[in-house]
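May I ask for a single protein's sequence together with how it folds?
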Amino acid sequence: MPRLALVDRCLRHARVSPKGRGTPFHWSSRHVDLYYLFPGMSSSNTASAALDTQMSSIPVPLYRHAAPSGPWPWVDFNTELSSSEPPFQTGEHEWRGYPQELFGNWSPIPVARSEMLTQCARAVKPCLVYGMDVMGDGQFKTREPRLHRIEVSEEKINEFWSKLQDEESIVRKDVRVRALFVDNLSESVLKMLGTKFVLRPECFPIHSESPLKFPYRYNIEPFFFASSTNWIPSRYREDVRYGVGDHITVILPFIRTTEKTQKTHYSSSDMKPNEKKNTIDVMAPLHLHGEHVLLIDLLAVHMIREKNCSTIITYHPALRDRTTAEHLHQVMERAGGSVYWNKIFVASEDPTFFFLAILWYALYAWDESFEVLYNRIMDMEVILNDYNFTAMVDLNHSLHALQAHLLQYETLLHDFQKSVEFVRDTPN
């Protein structure tokens, strides 16, 4: 394929120094050590590698803590396992005791190490919840004005908890899928969503033979929130009740392109003139020449699937230039207006199609990113075709940065493939 051949040629040039000698890579965590790329560079500049992209770079994913199959959530073997923790009395905390109230092994130590609650505490803006319903006839309905956009400040915590319980028991009739898109997730809202979704008999037809005992309580595994706040790619199925429903979760980092602004910080891959750094942070945005920036974005989706009454919750990181709940809510509204997709929702009662439509958002983003990368590599190829190795000195860092990011993107694209196959192979 032309694009792949062009990438390969560009990267083969990147592996050759101006004098024709190979320059091997040395990988260390998420950084590429440029001491090996530039042998004459002093390693004393390591301290200068603290980039001004703290608000743009994302954490290195800790895969061992990603899924509920791990017997020791957020505990490493250098942790003092024999240390005693304060006793916890269940049944006395309602939502405020989440997650230990419902998941006893999520004691203060793993909760603190996962930082899923402290990450929420850093949000300075009030939590916003955007709602959408897919009705029984397949039509999309933006919720009533009082439920379309809910601002949950600390002063309205109890009011929001009551509203969650009331709407689940009253307004759920003839709703196939209810989607809640959450911006600036607060600690209190996290605990509420994780603690209790109540399914009432109204969710099922009068003659339904559902084996559920009502009211039925949903509990959301803390792994969804811990993996989401830590950007850990994962996908899993849980709470399988044959003939009734299940839970499926996909945490999916993906690549998206955005435009540069005057306030955009420099990354390790877009240095100022005459500036050298000895690391490439592949988790930070990749600044291309021109107006484009490639960055890692996140889709974090938890779906509670039921034959007649499903719920989707999406988490959105409070990080600049990432997809917000409001934006994804608007995108899904447009999906509901698509003639092609509307026919699918009308013809099929499977709520998983709504989940699949969300994954299409990441597919669009990947394709746009490849388009931008292709144009950038074309520009580089023009210079490389001149065989002007003096120019290569200036391009050396850019080429190595591009190679490092492409290797990272390949990993994320493979995670995307596995997530799509997971949804395909997990029947409702």
